[in-house]
């Protein structure tokens, strides 16, 4: 398949003020795309846009609010025309025992990670279908397939994202609208502060950004980082439950143990799992 050039394409990235979203925007802009980054931290997103290469603009966006998401997409189209690619990147994570998780943190993760993606797809995909072209790329997680102890709700939200996108992809078959889901392991961002990587190496935002660009240029549905995670999860599914449990205990980190007795996540969770602005 011949790569699709990025030059001149309009790309909207949610959660773009920092981390994976910011690095993805930077690399897309360097490749010639016109990039809109949206974030609920208005000051941070405009600062980021000013520090990134030419062709990046920052906009207010709260993915948990339909009016805000609608206004974001409209503002991007008013500036540059139809959106070619939507990158659903915004996400939040609480880490700890399931019984200790505050109800507000549970609700926030589901609202941002799952409902935010659903909201973006429902708002962007119909416009793309009318034009007969478009691409929605969603940053999910290896937790879509593997559920580390200490990330129960986060994993549930990412399981939900994977299931939702699989169904939407089937509905959009033949429409010209592509759906892709990227499932990285632990990435070195504030979202993952204090967590362990298990048997996998720690990824950087650049690893995910490169995967986003690659899947835009050569569309496919599933992308795992590292690449062996997908085949490993599929292979593990054919094992007896006892063997599967043993394998996952060896390979998948226990995040409760990783964060126990530390305060490294306190500032992040206070800022991102409440109603006060903050980015991933």
| Contiguous runs where pLDDT drops below 50 for at least 5 residues | 276-280
Strand content: 5-15%
Count the helices. How many? 10
| Strand/helix succession | EHEHEHEHEHEHEHHHH
CATH fold-level assignment: Rossmann fold
**What is the residue-mean pLDDT, rounded to a whole number?**
93
**What summary fits the major beta sheet?**
7 strands, parallel
The helix fraction, in percent, is 40-55%
- Shape assignment: globular
CATH architecture, by name, is 3-Layer(aba) Sandwich
Distance between the termini: 33 Å
Rg to the nearest angstrom? 18 Å
Largest beta sheet: strand ordering: 3-2-1-4-5-6-7
CATH level-four homologous superfamily name: NAD(P)-binding Rossmann-like Domain
The helix-and-strand class reads alpha/beta
Give the number of DSSP strands: 7
Q: How many structural domains are formed by the residues? A: 1
Describe this entry's structure for a reader.
The protein has 280 residues and is an alpha/beta fold. It has one domain (10-272): NAD(P)-binding Rossmann-like Domain (Rossmann fold), CATH 3.40.50.720. Helix content is 47%, strand content 14%. It has ten helices and seven strands. β4 (85-88), α4 (103-131) and β5 form a beta-alpha-beta unit. The longest helix has 29 residues, at 103-131. It is globular and about 55 Å long. The two termini are 33 Å apart.
